[in-house]
Amino acid sequence: MDYLGKKWKFIAIIYFIACYIFVIVIKHLPLSTLLLFYGGFILLTILLFLGSTIGMIGILVQSVTKNDKKAFKYYRAAYKLHTNNISIITSYGLILLKEDKIEQAIDIFKKSLSLNPQFLANKIIKCNIAICHWKLGKIDEAIDIYEKIFKDFELATYDDEEDNDEEDIKQIEESIDSNEEKEYVIKTNSYVYAQDYTTIGYLYLLKKDYDKAIENSKKALMLNAKHAPALDNLGQIYYEMKDYDKAFKYLKSALEINPNMPDSNYYMGLIFEKKNDIEEARKYYKKTASCNINALNTVTREDVNKKLQKFNPNL
């Protein structure tokens, strides 16, 4: 079926052309007859690739409704029907990851990887696997995957050193936002995004390697000065370093861009709690509770509920 799937588009083109020639050109039959032949072929395609057909419905539902739960049943059915559509399988794995079903998610992503996706999809799937390792507590494995990705996506090099330097500088300058101080040099190409640097920055935070955590988070801001998760990263980093003024500055900036970030709201609450400003802390904890929290966040619903119970015992 895998082989047939790869050739099906070619088969379809040949079939449609052959039908047109036979029905219209040779036999001079009515257009309705041609449409009947085409309809039969489309029905056969749906039956042969039922899993992918159902999965595409899931993608459509998710695109229109922005609701993972509504799309989930279609992805699950598609996977059980052995679809080999990488986008469908990866979307299924991502929902499992968000729902904290990490073991299932990593198996799904490995299945996607085994289908030899194109280079950018390959990178995205590997990033998802790295996040699974993070959630399983395997921080070193997660960092190794990201560092390997960064190495694979380094800027192109040339034999002529002078040309190499000029081209690298040009690409780097184009990727840097002029508002962010150029403290670091980005050596990866345009297929490595701000989110990638943000994630590895957070992984280094978990390792308490604050220098690398700051470096990667600031590289994310060099790529996108308004990338709120990178600002949130820096807020959390400086909070862990007990520099609460700097932490406040970055978290406030993150929330100005996206007021509904649960992690930033939660850490703002922690800062005000440290300052013994209970009213402000309570406000931010309540705001955190109203946000959408899933397994991709650094704060859990349990963390928030504990704070609410502590400062709002009647809730």
TrEMBL record:
Membrane spanning stretches: 12-29, 35-61
Transmembrane helix is among the record's keywords: yes
Keywords attached to this entry: Coiled coil, Membrane, TPR repeat, Transmembrane, Transmembrane helix
Designated name of the protein: Uncharacterized protein
UniProt superkingdom: Bacteria
SUPFAM superfamilies per record: TPR-like (SSF48452)
Organism: Vallitalea longa
TPR repeat intervals: 86-119, 194-227, 228-261
InterPro entries for the chain: Sel1-like, TPR-like_helical_dom_sf, TPR_rpt
Pfam families (UniProt xref): Sel1 (PF08238), TPR_12 (PF13424), TPR_8 (PF13181)
Coiled-coil stretches: 155-182
Gene3D superfamilies the record matches: Tetratricopeptide repeat domain
